[in-house]
Amino acid sequence: MTGAAAQLDRSTFYVVGGTLLGDAASYVKRAADDDLLQALLQRQFCYVLTSRQMGKSSLMVRATHRLRAEGVAVAVLDLTAIGQNLTPEKWYYAFFPASDSS
Fold it and tell me: Which of 29, 39, 94, 100 could form an SS bridge with 44, CB 3.0 to 4.6 Å?
């Protein structure tokens, strides 16, 4: 092995069951990468919907990395952190807890 291929750290090249870094050498670019980036640069509301383990998180990390490289300020919110399979009331309550009136 020579050149750039010899420089790859094999311990981090492959990621099993997790999110790839924004500049991961093993990332396989898809049409969705450019579609999402262009839509976000045009300030369009975007969402990615697909089944488990299909690269949604890696796509989000990659888009975030590319947007920041373009000078765009990016905020990432993990809405799953507040829970899953919640009623609408419980989901919204996580953002706006009832104030104690006493």
Answer: 39
